[in-house]
Amino acid sequence: MSTLSAMVFTASVRRWAGGCSAAVVLCTALLYPQVGDAKDLLPLKEQESTEDGSTQSPSFDYQEKGIPQSLFTWIKMAKGFDVEWDTFGRKGWYTQDPRLKPLEPGSVFTSEIPTIYIVFEVAPLEDPAQFGVQWYWEKPSGQLNEKSAGQDVLEVSGHERYGFLELKRVGARWTAGNYVAKIYIAPIGQQPFHAANQVGVMRFTIADPIPALSPDQNMIR
Fold it and tell me: Which residues contact 102 (CB under 8 A, 6 or more apart)?
């Protein structure tokens, strides 16, 4: 009987070991695709559109009142901005959520302006996000210059609703002409200037006003 018991025990051990081996193989097979999927979660590298010609993206230049575009409740270009504070109903009792008000909004600016601001309000965010902009000079042919004229990134925490991006002048003056600003929204830690993160565009023009002629010059003409 002892010999028979030993044989049964040995067979049971071999079956258990074989079952473990099969389980290991099965787990490995199930986990392997998940490892492959995890690679897709790596931060995106900077990538422009691979299409020929200009990318057709939604324009934020013309907005209908009360109709948000993307995450933006509204978004405007301006020469500056002012900070306004909400109150609890009593003068001097302020909340911690300032509102930004665009100053002299528009799409045409002079060449000596040091910075153009993109001021916006977004819908309440559940998670922090980063907003980015890259701007390009538009050639007379209508195609954008291959190299961007500049870029800016702003990180917005989950409880903030207002923000601004800065388009800073490079050199003593802006180059006259038309520009296209590409707007991006991405999670914190991702590459903001990836083609998949572009949500829209805004257009602006750099043009100096024509100086008025004096009465003497008008007479000469």
Answer: 76, 77, 78, 80, 81, 117, 119
